What does this fold into?
Amino acid sequence: MAKGDIVGHKPPLRVLETTIREGRIPHALLFEGPEGIGKKKVALWFIEALNCRRAPGEGCGSCEQCERIQRLSHPDLHLLTLEGESIRIEQIREATNILRFRPLEGRWKALVVEDAERMTPEASNAFLKTLEEPTPWTLIILIAQSADALLPTVRSRCQRIRFFPLKEGEVREVLERLGVQAPPSALRWGSPGKAIRMLQEDFEALLLKAKEGGLSGIFDLGEELGRDRERAIGFLQFLLQECRRKLEENSLGFDKFWRLLHIYRCLEEYANARLCVEAALLEMLHL
It folds into this structure.
């Protein structure tokens, strides 16, 4: 993947290009920003740029090194993802043990941790020694929606790079490249990933059904979404987007928006999903 394949994110890309140009590669980076906007894609490009032999410092996107990194099949690239609802200490121990050894093919041995804020406290503490005393060939990239959800001791040992939602035109460009047609409402998320999920899940129809069903409709939908936390989170994100639109139209007060945002944050902190959905719908019924 060449840098030109990345849509948006010019400020983060400039920061990363500067570190390459000046030869001062941080051993630990923290990519912070909303989900589904392309943070992982930028991380993979950066790793390609550091390991590409055809276009060092840029990444050609087509040599064997670049293609294997993009396919996540490079022996010097390791990706940690959630096991269940968290990243466990056993995963961190295995990964940090791998980082002790020199790269097999590339110049850098890279570890990418998705949903880094979901590391258990034990996993975060086990990670500290590697962050404090990395081997010279180690590159660690933590990807998180909120840096504040990480332990301060982990956060302070990483160079933090902030990512922001894409513009509507940029979201449209990403979706067009994927062959996905999306309505204007989906583009307002600023996140191609969320837009695709929104297309797969008709949250607008669910909201309408709940409104038409009154309290019974609210409780039925709360029970349905309460069984799937990810769907519940997606639904509340949809409600927040609707609130934002109404704020822009001056048809909604800030107090209602902040109450809904509080409910959403409670859900993110593992509050009861059914109760959060029901509380959010009760707020929305009065829009």
In short: Residues 30 and 142 are 5 Å apart (CA to CA). The mean pLDDT is 87.
